[in-house]
Design goal:
The chain is built from six helices and eleven strands. The chain is an alpha+beta fold and 232 residues long.
Length: 232
Amino acid sequence: MNSPVEKALALILQASQTRGFTCRHNSSAVQINIPGSVLKRRKEERLAGTILPTAQGTEIFWGTPVPGSTTYEHLLAVESVLPEQVIDYQGLLEAAEKAGVVPSGVRALRHLVSFMKPGEGASAVGKGYVQDRPACVVLTDQRLLIVDLLDTPAAALADSPIKEIHKLVLGKKTSGETLSLYSGAGNVTIYGLGHGEGYGIVSRYRQAVQEIKGPALTRQSLETGPPSGEDE
């Protein structure tokens, strides 16, 4: 039977060929060759990846391509034609399914994952708006993130470790739920969340507080933190 590394390389080879690229590899490295094209205004390029077997499967490290660069776009092109459930998006797909959130494609998923640390897992997500711009809120096992979905800024709109969240306030309007984050790093409100999305994040946050802070601090956090979500 093929090893996990061999299976991963076979998928990369197939996806590369689907995009009109060629692929070479050995047991520790993989190279995708992008042919130049006058019609597509594309320069010849080589993408080099290092193969890292892990307990969860196979990780291929492509360096740190800058979002918007040709390298980043070529990698997205390959990733977008891989079979579903092959890429580990660190729990984002599972959290989105629970909330009834429709993922916005590979580009949005990769954008969100870029803000997450290795081994960090998403437990709840929601999609809404911050200052009239599409945004996503992600609660992980370590932090609460609010990320602009249009831009690729150097920092998230909000990046608060669970221990440093002062309050997480849920509100309900006819246009959808709102979630207001109050932390030492600043305050951010995301609005237009789908029905139950904000409530799901607050519920999971309460569980995370219990797991991280312990029973004594949990009572204090819940008294001054997330309410039950009365109508505004």
